[in-house]
Amino acid sequence: MRVNLCAVEEIGDELIIHSHNGGNIDGDEAETLMNDLIADSRFQAAAEKVKLHIHVSRTFRHIGVFGNVPEDAVFHTTEPHNVLEQDVGKHYPTGAYAAEITELMQVSYQVLKDHPVNKERIARGQLPANMIWPWGAGRAMMLPNFRQKYGKSGVVISAVPLVWGIATLMGLPHPHVPGANGDLDTNYAGKVQAAVDALRDGADFAAIHVEAPDEMTHAGHLDKKLEAIRLLDKEVVKPLLEKLPELGDFRILMLSDHKTLLSTRTHDGKPVPFAIYDSRKPGTPSRLDESTAEKGVWVAEGRDIMGRLLEV
Description:
With 312 residues, the chain is an alpha+beta fold. 35% of the residues lie in helices and 18% in strands. The chain has eleven helices and 13 strands.
């Protein structure tokens, strides 16, 4: 399961979730909170019931592995970013291990609510990261090796553990860029340079994943979502178009992995616009938005888009 560090607050008889990412906690604070939680005897007792092992990252995103899960077990969990400003009690899991996971969440709040890291965060005007939220249950899987599938080498630049996992399963390195945190103030320049360096060193393909527009939408900030898009354009796309010609001919694919709507602050499954730029045949400049994309090429299966980019 994914295991988020979230920010919750007791209001009357309810426990309200304010942030699915604990105020976007990262670095030493995220590691300290999770390691201290795992070391707490109360949490250890609850975790032992489901043989839970948590792999800690330096972000609000962690990975929880449950042992001895029956093959027919069915989990029902809720994405924390879909229920912001709602009562946590209405969204505890159902199905397999429901009582045990609920206990883990409740115990984590008791352990973390008065943790020194959270007291310091509150004193600084930041949200505390005071509850874990397991969700997104899935079984271990295999993905095709990228080089074997496409005949190309590559690298993935991201601040998100889920993306690191996908890269690992496909045999792609995913170097961690200092200051890359998946938020609005991420190290855009560092990500671009890491990708360019990898291409210069012989990689055929480089993916740069930017999480900020998604995070700002979950937070419900129109102004910050717009700023994230502007920063993506200014700090990622523009420098790439300036640096890549030095390496020779190139192609760029730009798209989002999904839509995230401000109207709901949640993900949406409708098709997303994409654009491929080829330095060998630039074509006529146009906008990149939904209405323009509807007039272009339709790709029914998302997995087919990589073949278009790589011309394989």
